[in-house]
Amino acid sequence: MMASYRRAELLDRLGIGVIVALAVIALALLLLPAVIVVVMSFDTRGYISFPPQGFTLDWYYKVFNQPVLVNAMLTSIKVGIYVTLLCIAFGVPTALACVRGDFRGATALSVFVLIPHMVPGIVLGVAVLFTGALFGIGPSIWLQSITLATYVMAVMVRTVMARLQRLDPLLEQASANLGATRWQTFRTVTLPLLLPAILAGAVFTFIEGFDNLSVTIFTHGYRDRPLPIELLAIVQNTNSPLVAAVSSVQILLAMLALGIISLTIGLDRVNE
Q1: What is the CATH number for 78?
Q2: Predicted confidence (pLDDT) per residue in 157-213, tens digit
Q3: Which residues cross the membrane (predicted)?
């Protein structure tokens, strides 16, 4: 009896060890490329190589002293903000309709929202480009923002839906029983409880709007070139650590966005 108990305990520990090892390997595979890019951005040589030789901040100085790259960053920030606002404006009501809506098409609506996100970004970008040409609408920052918002709307909808499904409907019913209108109930009860999920969805949609390439390459305005497009042009024309410096800036912005979630609402509360 004791032998079989020890054997089972040993197998449990072995299983836990294997799971932990696989998790560490997966985390290393995810983080290692980003770490290598950041390390290469400090190289003193004029070409990308690993490991780097020396340490310098000159490449970052060049990034923020090139008007083309600075304008590209500002354009990407604008696009990210536009995409976020569009996703909040349309995604939150859609999530409410899918979860609280009392109509036959609620389930179909929740599935329909996922379709653009399931389509490859390149396919969506080409489709929007050709459709816009039929109606005389050319590539622009607004076409890019609307297309990206359509592409990532599912992130906002699903995040808010996950939070909304965990809310007790009795809270809203109690508010209505006390004489509150639907708008008052939403503003004073539902919205504050949904705010963590909305903020989390906003950060993720901003990141996607900021650094998306597959959709942006077909829909961006030629006078408003976002950072991913400029980065692609740099990669095609040069092999300097400037590429790594620009990529490091994008990584830093993504980490700052996740840090904002962690400090404000906590990553563990996103889907509570």
Answers
A1: 1.10.3720.10
A2: 888 888 887 777 777 777 777 777 777 777 777 778 788 888 888 888 888 888 888
A3: 14-42, 79-99, 111-135, 141-161, 189-207, 242-267
Tell me the C-alpha distance between 267 and 42, whole Å: 31
Residue 30 lies in a domain: no
Task: Output the CA torsion 165→171→174→176 (10° steps).
Answer: -60
> What residue numbers bound the domain in which 121 lies?
66-269
The total of structural domains in the chain comes to 1
Inter-residue contact 100 to 191 (CB < 8 Å): no
In one-letter notation, the amino acid at residue 136 is G
**Distance separating alpha carbons of residues 183 and 196, to the nearest angstrom:** 20
Torsion of CA 12, 14, 19, 20, to 10 degrees: 110
Give the CA distances from residue 140 to residues 83, 84, 95, 144, 205, in Å, rounded to whole numbers and listed in that order: 14, 17, 29, 6, 19
Q: What are residue 161's phi and psi, to 5 degrees?
A: -60, -40
pTM exceeds 0.85 for this model? no
For residues 54 and 260, the answer to whether their CB atoms sit within 8 Å is: no
d(CA 202, CA 82): 11
Q: Which two tokens stand for residue 123?
A: 């396919």
